[in-house]
C-alpha cells in the first residue's frame, strides 16, 4: 500500500519536470524515528524522492542528514516509521538488502580499491564469470566483458578523461576516482543513487565534472539523493532541497524559491519556513 | 569517441617521461620484472664462475632444493597479499610432517590416510591463525609469533624429539622424493607437485573473484567491505588455505629429506618471507604476483647453489640475501610512489 504523496513544496515546476512529479515517488520515508537511549537521532521525518530528480539533503552537523540517509540505505534500522520503494513497504536489514533492491550508495570515503583496475573496481563483489564450463566449473572471470561494459558505464556518464579500464585506480586523480565510484553506483543502481559529500575533497574543475555526472544520472531517470555541505554545488545541481534541522525536517525548498542565504538561515533556525506548519 | 578526446588521451599518455619514470611505471605494472632480471643475471654470473652450474644435473638439484621453500612461500604470499605475515609456516609444516610420519610408523596407518590427517591438521592450524586474526582482531605478527612457539613445542613433545627415518615409513609418504630424468634433468614428483600448486593458486589469484578479494582486502579492507566484499571471511579463508599448502609442503619435505625430523628446516619462516619479498610482493598488502614468489625462491636457492659451486664461503650467500631483501623492499617503496 503506497503512502500518500507529500506536498511537493515546489512553487513552479519547470515544464519539462511535470512528468517527473506527476508520477509516484520512487523512494519515500514516513515518520522515520531513530532513538539511541535518550538521544533522538531522527524525530519523525518524512521524505519523498522522485525518479528523474536530484534531491539535496542539507543540514548542520548533527541535524540528522547522515542518519536519515543511513535509514534509507539499510545501514541503520529506524526505531519507528516506514520506508517505501516503488510504492511497496521495504525493511532493509543491511546495506546489501538496499543494494539488491536497487539503491546504490557512494560513500564519502569512496570505497574504491587503489591497487585494482577500474573495471575490477566497478565489478567488485559483483564479478561476472565467463559463459560455459570456464565460468561455472573453473569460475573464471569474464575480464574482457567486464572491461567493455565498464567502459560503456563510464562513457554513459559523459566522462571522457578515463579511457583505459585496465588502469589501476591509484593512477587516477581524486575526481576520476570519484567518477569511478559514481559510475559503479550508476551501473548497478537501478532505481536510486545516494551520494554522500561527493565533492568534499575535490577541486573546482573536478567538482564540476562530478556535478555533471549527477545531472546525467538524473537525466538517465534515476532518483538521486545528494548530501552536501557545499551550498553552491547544491544550488547548482539540485531540483529540490530537503533541509534537516535538529533531527526533523525544517522544510523542502527549491533553488528557484529560495536563495542560498535563505536556505542557510532555515538550516540554522534563524528563519522559519511558512509552509512548514504541519497540516 | 570524438577525435579530440582520443587526441587528448594520446597526448596524455605520450607526455614526456624520463627513462627513470618509465622504469618506475614498468615495475609498477609488472612487479616481477626486477626479480626476473636478477635471476637471469645471477644465472649468467654463476655459469661464468663455474660452467657446471648451467648443466641439466645442476638444474634438477636446484629445483629440488627450491621446492620446499617455494611451496611454503605460496601460502606466505597469500597472507602477505592481505597485509599480514605468517611466522608459523615452518612450525605448521614440521608439526604436520611429524604427525604424518608418527601415524604411519607408530599408529600403523596406511600412508594416504596418515597424509590426509597431517594435511587436515595443517589446515586446522591455519584456521586457528585465521580465527585469532579475524575474530579476536589480533595483529597477524603477534598471532603467528605465538603459534610458531606453540606448534614447534607440540611437534617436539609429540615426537619426543626424535626423527623417523624414511625406511620406517610407507612408500606413499616417501613418493614425492622419487622422480624421473629427462636427458640428465632429474625431476621429482615433489617438484612437479609444487609447480602444480603454483599453477592452481596462480590461476585462482588472477582469474577468479576470490583472487580479487584477496588483493582488495589487503589493499583497503574497509573500502572492500563497503563494496560488498566479505573481508573477514576472505581473511579467514586465506589463513586456512595457507595451512593446507604448508601441509602439502610437509609431505614433500618427507620425500626430500628422507626422514621426518622435528627440527627440520629451522630457517623456513625467514626464507619464505624472503622469497615473497624478493619476488616483488609488497609487505603492505594488495600488490604482487605469485610468479614473482617462485622467481624469488629460485633466486635465494641459486645464490646458495651457485656460490657453493664457485667455492665461495657460504656466509656470502647470507650476506647477498640480506642485501637483496633490503633492495627489494626499497624498490617496492619507490614504485608505490608512481603517479
Automatic annotation (TrEMBL), chain A:
A molecular function (GO) held by this record is: ATP binding
Identify the InterPro entries for this entry: AAA+_ATPase (IPR003593), ABC_carbohydrate_import_ATPase (IPR050107), ABC_transporter-like_ATP-bd (IPR003439), ABC_transporter-like_CS (IPR017871), P-loop_NTPase (IPR027417)
Keyword entries, A-Z? ATP-binding, Nucleotide-binding
Pfam families (UniProt xref)? ABC_tran
Domain of life of the organism in this record?
A: Bacteria
Keyword NADP set for record: no
Does the keyword Nucleotide-binding feature in the UniProt annotation?
yes
Q: Report the Gene3D superfamilies cross-referenced here.
A: P-loop containing nucleotide triphosphate hydrolases
| ABC transporter domain: residues covered | 27-271
Q: What is the name of this protein?
A: ATP-binding cassette domain-containing protein
Q: Which organism is it from?
A: Nostocoides veronense
